[in-house]
């Protein structure tokens, strides 16, 4: 260590100095330590040009408590173990400590830059001088580029060892810049490559590429977080092996390869990460195990809660871009979703997409109970917010297969299938823009509220509010089935069918504006098979299409039900065929065609 004391007279006069004051000393005494801490040392002219790659001309064999060692040279321990007393600080200034072990005592502080694979630390855990650690893959032995399976597994082992070491030393920010490396998934029973501990921020840059080593496992994770808390994953690009995977050696669909798998994770964030080409999902959220039949957690098991994924690009994953199968308070915000379940780039049949092929899939696993009128809630999703995302060129954008309290708002949907609601309840869909980029081709739709019932006829799709959305260019703008839905203040433009009414109870349709310049288009529409509309209210709004603004057929002939239409401006002829229990009042239309129907007409303007 080459340092010079500026106040030489003071130091030489002190009774605590054991040797002469020259620039070769390792200062250990309390007085000198006080001066170091007060910042009263400065480099000499000689040492300002020192070479940090040269060997140090001192050793630390007899270092004293409360010392500070400044490393601007290479300190070679020659394979030895050096005992370090209490309150010693090792500061990095371009040098290193190599080839040995520091057996440290309490309150030792070490700069994170000094950590390396040839330096072992035993005894107490040290504190790092800074809570940020810059991971240099070459320093730690990561082999980049295409590698053998053995090297990819070694890469995984190295990474996991270092990030856990960093956490033990009090580091919270694990920072990676330039790295492009493959990581193997076959070195543990769970088949994960990297596993993150709690309370760690994995912070990557645009130059960071972490890749799955091509493999044959039906189940595997690139990054696994299991029963962990307070994790941040930010920046970087994660790559799966969708197009290089071995789908033949192991049986199964191979749809469970995840880039990030959150299993029973709390209070964690994924921010500004790219997730590409998984054999399964880009991001997967679930609990620690199945729940009890009533949805309660089993003893000593956890759910995932308070998880956010934001500002990410999730692209071209073989199954879903994101799946949420168990979790509460999930926030999916400001992301771009592309090519979920899209096969345009698949070079082989095996790499082609696998069901369900959705950008965001909410699919808590349930089983209908033997009575046929209830479910076993083995998984639960609740309070899921999907906000301000862009969906484009996906097989389907969002599917709410099950779950409670999903909120979808301020998103832009550009795929052929926008939002599908299966057996889900108590949600809101508002302030979104749905616009098909391919026009109103067959089977395209903006929103589908499905018809799903228990054995007793009770609807499983209930209580959705659909408000202030725009729908442009689909075959079907909205398909509405289920119970207790409010569909209000939506603008539907150039769809072949504006709002299609299916089997439903307590539908409230208020102030929807439907217009279309497509020939033979419809405003309010029903399919021709017999079904029911119980307590369906259509009020306010304007319908202006080139075909028929209102066409209802085969409704309420076999079951009690009633339909009320109030204060709607239909610009054209309205048609009813085999529709019972309908009242039309305070509305405008040019003419009527009623077949096997006897509506009550009150105060209309024809």
From TrEMBL:
According to its UniProt entry, this protein's organism is Algibacter lectus
Q: Which first-to-last residue range defines the signal peptide?
A: 1-23
The protein's name is Parallel beta-helix repeat protein
Q: Which SMART domains match?
A: PbH1
- Entry annotated with the keyword 4Fe-4S: no
Which ranges of the sequence are coiled-coil?
none
Keywords assigned by UniProt, alphabetized: Signal
Q: Which SUPFAM superfamilies match?
A: Pectin lyase-like
* Entry annotated with the keyword Signal: yes
Q: What is the lineage of its organism?
A: Bacteria, Pseudomonadati, Bacteroidota, Flavobacteriia, Flavobacteriales
Q: Where is the Periplasmic copper-binding protein NosD beta helix domain?
A: 367-528
Please list every transmembrane segment annotated in the UniProt record, as residue ranges.
Answer: none
